Amino acid sequence: MMLSGFFRIGVWQNFFRAWRSGYSGNLEGEGYTLGGVYVIGAGRQGVLLEHREKEFGDKVSLPSVLEAAEKIQPQAS
After folding, report:
1. Containing structural domain, residue 68
2. For 3-42, what is each residue's pLDDT tens digit?
3. For residue 60, how many C-alpha atoms fall within 13 Å in the half-sphere facing its CB?
4. Which residues form the signal peptide (predicted)?
5. Would you say residue 16 lies in a domain?
6. Rounded to two decimals, what is the model's pTM?
7. Computed over its alpha carbons, how large is the radius of gyration of the chain?
8. Residue 25 located in a structural domain
């Protein structure tokens, strides 16, 4: 996102939401890499959930992570 991330309204909304919630991270790091969450099933199940940040502070839905995790089926040995 580089400099364009600095000018996005959603980034500032996420920043203030985190600040009001009491988040006090160290803010170290390069600041250009967005994150993501993957839930991957066993064996041939593959990817059950994929969430990629579109802008800084874009959070994954916890219920969707739990729902995807419940779909993981143990692989027979």
Report:
1. 9-20+34-76
2. 666 677 777 787 788 778 877 766 676 667 778 999 999 9
3. 18
4. none
5. yes
6. 0.61
7. 16
8. no
